[in-house]
Amino acid sequence: MDLDRQVKEASAAKTQTGAGGKRRLPWGLLVPASLMVVLIVLVFAFRAQLLTGAAEYLVVDDAPRPAEVIFLLNGDYNTRPFQASQLYQQGLAPRIVIAQAEGQPAERIGLVQNETEISVAVMEKMGVPADKIVVLQVEGGVTSTYDEARALRQYVRDNSIHSVLLVTSAFHTRRARWIVAKELAGLPVSLEVSAVPYGSFDATDWWQSENGLIALNNEYIKLFYYFWKYR
């Protein structure tokens, strides 16, 4: 009896193994594995298009139209205030509005300037008259795009503004437009967005730059956070 059982077990083991003693991949796993390989190949082949599409989703850039105010978001003062100045010089709005950013420790001891003050200085240097720049004073200063959107809503209500041209960095535009539009909901005001290009990368090559990788990854994290917190 023991011999017969050993023969049956050996026969079963032989049936389950292929040439060279290797186990055959069950058909139930072969199809998913093949599909996964095909998917990986397709992703690699079309990686540039997929990566570009991921960036382009973040970008909202309306054809510039005249507005009552240009609203400049705090941030990259090496690009944003320059574009706001150009839009002003093109006659697209009679004034530029920006909310005062929160002060930082290094600023309080006189080592650096507040980022809003730098943006204002850039715009004045670019030819925007000081009396055409409105700095919204918010208690404690703004610390986020959400804070800036709330400051803009108050300004729009107090001054009966009916059209706003929003200026911010390209990857920031979708989140900025979403939260600003949400805060302006119910008010008779139109909103257009002007996307400011980056200096060293764009939607077609952001993954080849460290700054591009950081900018896109940070923006997607913030976008999901905003959709979750302020929905």
What would you say this structure looks like, in words?
- The structure is a single chain.
- The protein contains 9 helices and 5 strands; from the N terminus they run αααβαβααβαβαβα.
- It has 2 domains: 2-45, no CATH class; 69-200, Rossmann fold (3-Layer(aba) Sandwich), CATH 3.40.50.
- Helix 8 links the parallel strand 4 and strand 5.
- The longest helix is centred in the C-terminal third of the chain and has 20 residues, at 210-229.
- The radius of gyration is 28 Å and the shape is elongated.
- The N and C termini lie far apart (72 Å).
- The chain has helices at 2-16, 27-45, 47-56, 80-89, 105-108, 115-125, 145-159, 173-184, 210-229; strands spanning 69-72, 96-99, 133-136, 163-169, 190-196.
In short:
This protein has helices spanning 2-16, 27-45, 47-56, 80-89, 105-108, 115-125, 145-159, 173-184, 210-229; strands at 69-72, 96-99, 133-136, 163-169, 190-196. With 231 residues, it is α/β, with parallel strands linked by helices. It has a five-stranded parallel β-sheet, with helices on both faces.
